[in-house]
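Our preliminary data section would be incomplete without showing what the modeling component actually yields. Below, a chain of 194 amino acids is followed by its predicted structure, encoded as tokens that our downstream tools consume directly.
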Amino acid sequence: MKRHVCLIVLSSLCGAPAMAGDTSPFGELLPPEATYRLHAPFEARIGGFAHEPGAVESGSTDISAEIVFGDIIKTTNPWWSFVAMRADIGGTFNTANKTNGIYFGPLWTVALTDRIFVEGSVGGAWNDGVTNGVRPPQRAGVGCHWGFHETASLGYNLTEHWSVMATVEHYSNLNLCNANHGITNYGARIGYSF
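Predicted structure:
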């Protein structure tokens, strides 16, 4: 009896479509037109951020610009059509003469539906922040110019080419220098896939 109940539960969870291989962990595979942006050869993004709210450099805004390149790793397995690993390069430029940064590295995008996606990145970065000596008021002591940049985004595909995303980004040196006041910015961006 237990064996039959287990088989019924397993078959209802897996279902025929899963056995046929036409689903992903998030449901049915996305149609090709829905994954165009995900695997586009080139994407340009621009946006605005609140610069380090609630911290030493708060009270100003940043302009964000980013270029995302095509897939680093390509696969022919349709089960993985909802995931992309791409490369990005970009920068965050403060409008009030506070810390600016540029960054580069891998970017992972996961399509949760044909419209909603999440992203994350971890890469290298350079900033023009205060590294030593006397720190001016309302400037963070970042420790060193070279470090790391991490992002997390929740996005929405408006069309095949246009998308919007809410993003949090963080610049840090991971305590590799004598000071490590990381810079965390929150904002929104719009992207266009070519």
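The CA atoms of residues 92 and 191 lie 15 Å apart. DSSP finds one helix and ten strands in the chain. Preliminary results of this kind motivate Aim 1 of the renewal.
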